Amino acid sequence: MQTITPGIYQHFKGNRYQVIDIVRHSETQAEMVLYKALYGDFGLWVRPLAMFAETIEREGKVFERFQRLAD
Questions:
Q1: What is the CATH number of the domain that holds 63?
Q2: What tens digit of pLDDT does each residue of 6-25 get?
Q3: Which of 12, 29, 31, 45 has CB 3.0 to 4.6 Å from 63, enough for a Cys bridge?
Q4: pLDDT at residue 2 tops 90
Q5: What are the beta bridge partners of residue 45?
């Protein structure tokens, strides 16, 4: 699993996002990634850290869900 730090990432489907920080869920203390879309309404999103950093398989190919592009 890759280490996630603030910077620009590309989702395997093509859209780009800016990771702002790693945050914690107030009730469960689970680590979450706070990130902003770099398209459309530039909305803020959170996703569990493990899910953000995981690799996935689609049509026999393995991808990082989010690939780091830049700081």
A1: 2.30.30.320
A2: 999 999 999 999 999 999 99
A3: 12
A4: no
A5: 35
